[in-house]
Design brief:
Layout: E1 40-41, E2 49-62, E3 65-84, H1 90-96, H2 104-108, E4 110-112, H3 125-128, E5 131-133, H4 134-137, E6 149-172, E7 175-194, E8 199-204, E9 211-220, H5 235-241, E10 244-253, E11 257-259, E12 265-266, E13 281-282, E14 287-289, E15 295-298, E16 304-306, H6 308-312, E17 325-327, E18 348-353, E19 357-369, E20 375-383, E21 408-409, E22 423-431
Parallel strand pairs: 1-6, 15-17
Antiparallel strand pairs: 2-3, 3-6, 4-5, 6-7, 7-8, 7-9, 9-10, 10-19, 11-18, 12-17, 13-14, 14-21, 15-16, 19-20, 20-22
Length: 432
């Protein structure tokens, strides 16, 4: 009856009729977590450290302005990482990998289960299974069913290099200008692309932004007392035209790199169809197509066929020349079984980036001196003046090549906390 009746009538008075399970601690010894998977944290992890360095020069352009150019870099050494621990040897993986001359059938073959019926395995699949896969039995510790991830490893590094250019115009004829441009690249080495062959993953850091520009300006309009225009006006007119100030702040940057699918490899530039934020926009479905949706799938028998959703989205059923993605067979790095969390591609691609950041804030202020000790400020301020719709840094294109929405995203799913619509506010302040 869909849960409308309690399974037992005494659960309200005693919600734990069989008692409360208590942690076994170290009492089980080597039998702890057998038949299950477990991860652990390296107890000997050291605190990582960072080298930061920079050099540059400053040029005085005019009496009130300077131009600076600097190199700024950093190196993060020994940061936290992780690796699959309970995986077979590289030779075993090669026997199962189609791309290395093997066959998935070698690892998928069922062999007798030596753990069946053993008391420490009670309640797990290894306690009841008559057979298990050859891949499982060839793990270093076959009594554990998973890869057993070791965390807290000190083998992750981050490299940051940048050119930073700054222009400063300080109070020249009522005008202040501040401009900054940064050209940078941030690369990480984290995790393992192929733990079987001890190959670490290296690629762009998640918030790498090659180009970043900021510009702000403050301008005191030259009207009224002691100014270029209207300095001889009477008191009433002078109060009206004096004290006006315009200020603006603008920032723009490249989008952060989008995640890449872990269970598919890139065959060609994925921007060949649609691609990037200038690609196809299906406004009727409120959906943005970010990259090539043409996906091929390799099966364990070696045959390759296109995904049906790719055909539905306009990819050819017979001509595979425009296909940008391949889901490889089991036991291939990035394959269906993804052994050891391995993959053929890095975590992210600079070819496919999230939405660019753009924002303009603007204000118009008026300061009026009513008496020697009393003055009033009036103003209008606009935030996100252009009403730019920002999807947010956490919103990325769908990376599941089994999903019909692969390579797309929906603006309706963006978190409003990452951006806001145009906001205009009026303000008044009295000072005495």
């Amino acid at each position: 009856d869909s849960g409308r009746t309690l399974a037992r009538n005494d659960l309200l008075s005693n919600p734990y009729p069989t008692g409360i399970l208590t942690p076994a601690g170290a009492s089980l010894g080597y039998n702890t977590f057998v038949g299950q998977n477990t991860n652990w944290y390296n107890p000997n992890m050291r605190v990582p450290y960072v080298h930061q360095f920079s050099f540059g020069f400053q040029l005085q352009v005019t009496d009130t302005s300077t131009l600076e150019a600097s190199y700024v870099g950093s190196r993060t050494i020994g940061a936290n990482s992780e690796r699959a621990y309970n995986i077979p040897s590289l030779d075993v993986r090669k026997r199962c990998n189609l791309l290395e001359g093997g066959t998935p059938d070698y690892c998928n073959t069922q062999v007798p289960n030596p753990f069946k019926g053993l008391a420490p395995f009670a309640g797990t699949g290894l306690y009841t299974a008559t057979q298990i896969s050859r891949y499982q039995i060839m793990r270093p510790f076959p009594q554990f069913t998973g890869d057993m991830i070791e965390q807290g490893r000190n083998d992750s590094n981050i490299w940051y290099n940048s050119l930073q250019i700054n222009y400063n115009q300080r109070i020249g004829r009522g005008l202040t200008l501040l401009g900054n441009y940064t050209l940078s690249k941030m690369v990480e080495r984290w995790g393992f692309s192929d733990p079987f062959a001890n190959v670490q993953q290296q690629g762009l850091y998640f918030n790498d932004r090659p180009h970043y520009m900021k510009f702000s300006a403050v301008y005191d309009l030259p009207f009224g007392k002691n100014q270029k225009f209207g300095s001889g006006a009477n008191k009433g007119v002078s109060m009206l035209i004096s004290g006006w100030r315009i200020s603006t702040y603008t920032q723009w940057s490249s989008g952060e790199p989008n995640n890449l699918p872990g269970n598919a490899i890139m065959l060609k530039d994925p921007r060949t169809i649609g691609g990037d934020w200038k690609g196809t926009v299906n406004w009727n479905a409120h959906q943005i197509v970010g990259w090539n949706p043409c996906v091929l799938r390799q099966f364990n028998d070696g045959s390759i066929r296109p995904q049906q959703f790719s055909i539905n989205r306009g990819c050819s059923a017979t001509d595979f020349s425009n296909y940008a993605w391949l889901m490889v067979a089991d036991y291939t790095p990035g394959g269906g079984s993804t052994p050891g969390n391995s993959r053929m591609s890095p975590f992210r691609s600079g070819q496919i980036r999230k939405q660019q950041l753009f924002n303009v804030d603007f204000s118009l202020m008026k300061t009026t001196n009513i008496t020697e000790r009393l003055r009033a400020e009036f103003g209008v301020e606009a935030f996100n003046l252009t009403n730019y719709y920002f999807f947010g840094r956490d919103n990325h294109f769908n990376t599941n090549p089994n999903d019909p929405n692969f390579g797309t995203q929906f603006p309706s799913q963006a978190w409003i906390g990452n951006g806001y619509p145009r906001q205009v506010q009026l303000r008044m302040k009295v000072l005495w």
